[in-house]
């Protein structure tokens, strides 16, 4: 009797684990317009698993502005596998030629984020998908910054979408998770093998929390964007702000492109403060509603100082070359009242 019920419990537990993880994978695939989804224990676990498609001697072309942890993985781990990466500056007139010129005979994969972290540059997904197809490369898009609510790269021709579900998909800064979505069956079966072989899978409870987060994604994203647009307009006219990066502002260099491939501009803003690092220190010490945190995409507003936090792994010279300056602050605008957030920023800046 006891043995029987133990057996049943174990069976039920197995069903609970598998069902929750499978359900979140299907939900993620569905909202990204993909056929197949895979869930992971973190965004970096998802990234590592995708990069496992590469072998000694292979080459990656990546955008030069990307999450510091991805850069660290490419340079400190993947390079040791014998896989090298060339970074493309996308602040040039003819970005497509820059990507084309970076492709080598051994290039296997193009890795982009758009909008990029932390400078919110926009990369033309459809054009890169054409380049990838012509050169038989895999195009991977890290879609963490705006979520599938505002942008669905597979619809624009990308092969793989990667997410840190820690961010907008979870939405409440209380889980760590990652996801990979594709419609390519061959890529999916290879990734499914690596997901199992590497084993960086999520817990059923984290999977459940992502599922719950997805239910409110639309309302949260709309609110993040409304607040971010309001604050970007306020900040761009503030005398203490040297420069602002937000793709929703008409003066953002890629605003038109952003409008064509995204249905909204998201909740992330970066800004450079007048007065260098000293001004950043003062600002951070005075701000109250924006919590100092590496993460982003939660309902509460967060603030990050990329040079010392998210992009601390990038050597100084390399970082400066990429335009990540000491006076840069990144805001993840939450869903609090926009006037409360504005007052908080105003008090901290003045
Ligand atoms: C764009 C982007 N991709 C991936 C990651 C990694 O995600 P995780 O922290 O879940 O490993 C991050 C983390 O900040 C990120 O900003």
Strand order of the largest sheet: 1-7-6-5-4-2-3
Question: Tally of extended strands?
Answer: 12
Ligands, ions, cofactors: pyridoxal-5'-phosphate
Task: Name the overall outline.
Answer: globular
User: Proportion of β residues?
Assistant: 15-25%
Order of helices and strands: HEHEHEHEHEHEEHHHEHEHEEHEH
CATH class category of the largest domain: Alpha Beta
N/C terminus separation: 72 Å
Q: Report the CATH superfamily of the largest domain.
A: Type I PLP-dependent aspartate aminotransferase-like (Major domain)
Total helical elements:
13
Give me the Rg, rounded. 20 Å
Secondary-structure class:
alpha/beta
Helix proportion: 40-55%
Largest sheet: 7 strands, mixed
Notable characteristics:
350 residues, alpha/beta, Aspartate Aminotransferase, domain 2, Aspartate Aminotransferase, domain 1, 2 domains, 7-stranded mixed sheet, 5-stranded mixed sheet, 17% strand, binds pyridoxal-5'-phosphate
Characterization of this structure:
This protein has 350 residues and is of the alpha/beta class. The chain folds into two domains: 2-215, Aspartate Aminotransferase, domain 2, CATH 3.40.640; 217-349, Aspartate Aminotransferase, domain 1 (Alpha-Beta Complex). Helix content is 43%, strand content 17%. It has 13 helices and twelve strands. It has helices spanning 2-31, 43-51, 68-76, 95-102, 125-134, 147-150, 185-198, 204-215, 217-236, 255-261, 276-286, 316-321, 338-349, and strands spanning 36-40, 59-63, 84-88, 107-113, 138-142, 160-164, 178-182, 241-245, 268-273, 291-292, 302-304, 328-332. The chain has a seven-stranded mixed sheet with strand order 1-7-6-5-4-2-3, sandwiched between helices. Helix 3 (68-76) links the parallel strand 2 (59-63) and strand 3. Helix 1 runs parallel beside helix 8 (204-215) and helix 11 (276-286) packs across helix 13. The longest helix is centred in the first third of the chain and has 30 residues, at 2-31. It starts with a helix and ends with a helix. It binds pyridoxal-5'-phosphate (PLP). Pyridoxal-5'-phosphate is lined by residues 42-44, 67, 69, 113, 117, 142, 144-145, 164, 166, 176, 178, 310.
């Amino acid at each position: 009797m006891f043995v029987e019920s133990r057996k049943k419990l174990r069976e039920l537990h197995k069903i609970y684990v598998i069902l929750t993880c499978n359900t979140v994978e299907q939900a993620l695939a569905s909202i990204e317009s993909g056929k197949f989804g895979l869930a992971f224990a973190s965004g970096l676990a998802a990234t590592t698993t995708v990069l496992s498609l590469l072998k000694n001697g292979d080459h990656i072309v990546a955008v030069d502005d990307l999450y510091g942890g991805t850069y660290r993985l490419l340079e400190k781990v993947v390079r040791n596998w014998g896989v090298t990466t060339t970074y493309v500056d996308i602040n040039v007139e003819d970005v497509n030629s820059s990507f084309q010129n970076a492709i080598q005979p051994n290039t296997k994969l193009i890795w982009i984020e758009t909008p990029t972290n932390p400078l919110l540059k926009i990369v033309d997904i459809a054009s890169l998908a054409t380049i990838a197809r012509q050169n038989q490369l895999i195009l991977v898009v890290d879609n963490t910054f705006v979520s599938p609510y505002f942008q669905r790269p597979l619809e624009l021709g990308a092969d793989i979408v990667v997410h840190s579900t820690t961010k907008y998909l979870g939405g409440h800064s209380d889980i760590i998770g990652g996801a990979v979505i594709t419609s390519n069956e061959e890529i999916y079966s290879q990734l499914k093998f690596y997901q199992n072989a590497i084993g960086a899978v999520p817990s059923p409870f984290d999977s459940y929390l992502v599922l719950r987060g997805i239910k409110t994604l639309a309302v949260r994203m709309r609110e993040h964007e409304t607040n971010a647009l309001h604050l970007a307009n306020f900040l761009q006219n503030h005398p203490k702000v040297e420069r602002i990066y937000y793709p929703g502002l008409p003066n953002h260099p890629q605003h038109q492109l952003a409008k064509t491939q995204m249905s909204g501009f998201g909740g992330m803003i970066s800004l450079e403060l007048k007065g260098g690092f000293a001004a950043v220190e003062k600002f951070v010490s005075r701000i109250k509603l924006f919590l100092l945190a590496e993460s982003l995409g939660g309902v509460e507003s967060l603030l990050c100082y990329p040079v010392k936090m998210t992009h601390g792994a990038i050597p100084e010279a390399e970082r400066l070359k990429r335009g990540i300056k000491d006076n840069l602050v990144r805001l993840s605008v939450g869903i609090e009242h926009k006037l409360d957030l504005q007052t908080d920023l105003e008090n901290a800046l003045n």
